[in-house]
Amino acid sequence: MNKEPVNRELFDEVMVPNYAPGKIIPVRGEGSRIWDQDGREFVDLQGGIAVTCLGHSHPGLVGALQEQAEKIWHLSNVMTNEPALRLAKTLCDQTFAERVFFANSGGEANEAAFKLARRYAWEHFGPEKNEIISFKNAFHGRTLFTVSVGGQPKYLEGFEPAPGGIHHADYNDLDSVKALISKEKTCAVVVEPIQGEGGVLPGNPEFLEGLRTLCDEHDALLVFDEVQTGVGRTGHLYAYEMYGVVPDILSTAKGLGGGFPVAAMLTTEKVAASLGVGTHGSTYGGNALACAVAQKVIDTVSQPEILKGVKARSEKLRKGMMDIGERYGVFSEVRGAGLLLGCVLTEQWQGKAKDFLNAGLDEGVMVLVAGANVVRLAPSLIIPEQDIDEALERFEAAVKKLTA
User: Fold this and answer.
1) What SS3 state is found at 250?
2) 157 and 284: one domain?
3) What is the pLDDT of residues 253-266, one digit of tens each?
């Protein structure tokens, strides 16, 4: 085993330079607290970017992982396994879904969703009906297909030619979708109920309802990317419930494993039929270890008291951040739902979101950004109230220094 010292400098020596991680290296987490190599403690409002939905080292998740690890880790999809079947049944029972496909990441779940949408249209209406409409500033993953459906050109730069047949409308603007949609060519409309990377921007109810109507009128499938909004993040198990708009296909990942890589694509029996034997697959998808952990996550998060608690914590955190914003003139609004919140920077602080992240680290609180103008918060869904208080105190100290 390599016993050389591990530090931030080593990253630059051995890793591809596509990330620019901060100076600290966390080595231990418990609940909503993290400790680095020097023993410094941080309150975690990042949640691994909406992933560690039950905090760090949650006893239930550790137990589920250990129990399954002693039974069986992995089988090929030549066979099925008990944890995958149990989890699929739970997801069908708890959502609109009738069929489930397992993958390892949000990008893979979206890749499966977009392939299914095209395949379904190809089978039912013919090869001409292959166009996908998505939205500017959307984020759907980093594979070539998902990054093309995503609406941020910077992520596609240098990777062209991109897959064709993809159009981008304006988020929350139904007329811009009407201008692009057609019965002959559109196979799907793909949307995040709340744009995450694009600035924590919630969809208007009438916009999402309008998309459902347009899809029905044009024989197109409605795909909800709930990679970031799913698994209790908004105070509902999935955000579509909050809007009362049911998609045909839904992708879920991030929080689904509470930190263990796992993802799923949910759909109806009718639509799922288009992915017949051999049409799509994943070596690790439906892995027994991952599904056992995800089962514990869903069983825990779907409890009414947990979901109710998300809303209470949301109000506390939202009010605290808005108060800081008003005191120091840094935030114009705090938007989002549940524990996916975006603190929008005022005019004079535009472009400086990363400065707030760095200032927070210096004071022992971890926050995120969503673009250059929004400070994003996505903590554990069960973060203790005292940790919220502590985080707000530390963040205020950071803002005070930054604005001095």
Assistant:
1) strand
2) yes
3) 999 999 999 999 99
Q: How far apart are CA 261 and CA 221, in angstroms?
A: 27
* Residue numbers belonging to the annotated binding site for N(2)-acetyl-L-ornithine: 142, 282
Q: Residue 400 has which token pair?
A: 């005070």
pLDDT of the residue at 75? 94
Is residue 63 a part of any domain in this protein?
A: no
Mean pLDDT of 84-108: 98
pLDDT band at 306 (very low <50, low <70, confident <90, very high): very high
Instruction: Name every residue whose Cβ is closer than 8 Å to that of residue 138 and which is 6 or more positions away in sequence.
Output: 149, 150, 151, 152, 168, 171, 190, 191, 192, 195, 198, 225
216 class by beta-carbon count within 10 Å (0-12 exposed, 13-18 middle, 19+ buried) = exposed
Known binding positions for pyridoxal 5'-phosphate: 139, 225-228, 283
pLDDT in tens, 150-162: 999 999 999 999 9
Q: Which domain holds residue 353?
A: 8-57+304-403
272 and 128 together in one domain: yes
C-alpha distance from residue 101 to each of 32, 120, 192, 201 (Å): 31, 15, 19, 28
Binding residues: 139, 142, 225-228, 282-283
Sign of CA dihedral 104, 109, 111, 116: positive
Using alpha carbons, list the distances in angstroms from residue 38 to 24, 28, 42. Answer: 9, 11, 12
* CATH at 392: 3.90.1150.10
In whole angstroms, give the CA distance from residue 162 to residue 310.
Answer: 39
pLDDT exceeds cutoff 80 at 4: no
